[in-house]
Structure formats: structure tokens, C-alpha cells
């Protein structure tokens, strides 16, 4: 069963959080509320998130400061952040958002469809990356157990076939997502993330192909770091 992705919603106003939940509920993912920067950082200590929607104007720790803390942590630095703001102070203010590590900067009131579409892209990328990690874990199991006898060899062959089929499905989905991003002229960060995912998939496919009979077996597989 595919686990749902978690989306972190950070805003000090309950009505804004309620509005975000209404907009994003159609994605059928897990929506997590945080009413302050401190509460958001606490949630990020224990859970993995596909994307963070972060209000800029908050009392105490504002969105910029919260983003700075997120990007300093190794566990959370790669989570995409979409800034939401009710005030547009011009290009300098927007630049500060991108400098803080945001992948997008949206002014309120925003188009619900556009926001939902942007969040959906990062959820898709997150899910593909989770699938990739799963394939890598199965491949490591194959490498560690591929030195047995005939019986184990048959079991390994079956696992190889299953791995190959599952990897092919992820490859197809990743290719379709990249094509969609390019056609829609999506955010540069999203396109770059998708390209990085495809490179990882290519490396995993090469490693898997090296396990096929006649290719030298596990000894010819590059290290998976």
C-alpha cells in the first residue's frame, strides 16, 4: 500500500489554515497544521514532508527565519518551501524569499487551482523518490543474498524480475512527470528535482542490469551509496 505524502501548512491564522486544507484536500494527502515557526520546526523533527507551505508574516519567528532554520538542518534542507504572503513589497521582498530557499513565492489572494497544481508537482516528485528508495533497498537485499546455491539462485532470479518490473513502472512515471513539467514551463526547482530523480533511476537501472546472467553478477555492480 502506498503511503500518503505529508504536506506541512504553516500559518498563525486558523482561518488561513482552514482555507489551505479546503484547497488541498482534493490531493488526498496528509495535511499537517502548524500555527507558528516553532511549531513547524518541531513537526519537522519527527516527520518527513513532501512540501511546506509557509506564511511569511507571522508573529515571533517569521517565515524567512523559519525557512533559514529548515535549510540549516540536514534532515530538512531539501524539502521544497512555497512562501505565502498577503503583502507584496516588490522585487526585493520576493528575492528575499528565494534567497531563503523557497522554490516559489505566492501572493494572497492566490488562485486555488494554481496552488493545488504546484503542490501536486512536489507531492509527485516526493512519491517517486520514495519508490526509488524502496527499489534501492530491494536491490541491496539482492546483492547481499545473491551468493547462494541453485535454490537461492532461482529465488534471486524471481526477485530480479520483480525488481525490474517495479523499476520500469517508476521510470515510466518519472518520464511522464518530467515531460509534463517541461510542457508546462514549471518552476526551475521542480524541473531540476525531476532531472535528479531520473539520473538516480538511470543509475539504479544500470546496477540492476549488471545482475542479469552473463553480465558478471553482483561483482560487477557499482557501489550504491
From TrEMBL:
Sorted UniProt keywords: Coiled coil, Phosphoprotein
Q: Which residues form a coiled coil?
A: 160-187
Could you tell me which residues carry 4-aspartylphosphate?
55
Q: What would be one Pfam family of this protein?
A: Response_reg
Q: What domain of life? A: Bacteria
Tell me the PROSITE patterns matching this sequence: RESPONSE_REGULATORY
Gene3D superfamilies per the record?
A: 3.40.50.2300
| Residues in Response regulatory domain copies | 6-123
InterPro entries in the record: Bact_response_regulator, CheY-like_superfamily, Sig_transdc_resp-reg_receiver
Keyword Ligase applies? no
* SMART domains noted in UniProt: REC
Protein name as it appears in the record: Response regulator
| The organism of origin for this protein | Streptomyces thermoviolaceus subsp. thermoviolaceus
Amino acid at each position: 500500500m502506498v503511503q500518503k505524502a505529508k504536506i506541512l501548512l504553516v500559518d498563525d491564522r486558523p482561518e488561513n489554515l482552514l482555507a489551505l486544507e479546503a484547497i488541498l484536500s482534493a490531493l488526498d494527502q496528509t495535511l499537517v497544521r502548524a500555527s507558528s515557526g516553532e511549531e513547524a520546526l518541531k513537526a519537522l523533527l519527527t516527520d518527513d514532508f513532501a512540501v511546506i507551505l509557509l506564511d511569511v508574516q507571522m508573529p515571533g519567528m517569521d517565515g524567512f527565519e523559519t525557512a533559514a532554520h529548515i535549510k540549516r538542518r540536514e534532515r530538512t534542507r531539501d524539502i521544497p518551501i512555497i512562501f505565502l504572503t498577503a503583502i507584496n513589497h516588490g522585487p526585493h521582498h520576493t528575492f528575499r524569499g528565494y534567497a531563503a530557499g523557497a522554490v516559489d513565492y505566492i501572493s494572497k489572494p492566490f488562485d486555488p487551482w494554481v496552488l493545488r497544481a504546484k503542490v501536486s508537482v512536489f507531492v509527485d516528485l516526493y512519491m517517486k523518490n520514495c519508490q526509488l528508495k524502496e527499489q534501492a533497498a530491494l536491490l541491496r537485499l539482492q546483492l547481499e543474498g545473491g551468493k547462494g546455491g541453485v535454490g537461492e539462485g532461482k529465488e534471486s532470479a524471481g526477485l530480479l524480475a520483480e525488481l525490474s518490473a517495479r523499476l520500469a513502472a517508476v521510470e515510466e512515471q518519472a518520464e511522464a512527470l518530467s515531460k509534463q513539467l517541461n510542457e508546462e514551463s514549471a518552476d526551475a526547482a521542480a524541473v531540476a528535482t525531476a532531472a535528479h530523480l531520473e539520473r538516480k533511476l538511470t543509475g539504479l537501472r544500470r546496477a540492476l542490469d549488471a545482475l542479469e546472467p552473463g553480465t558478471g553478477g553482483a561483482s560487477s555492480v557499482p557501489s550504491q551509496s
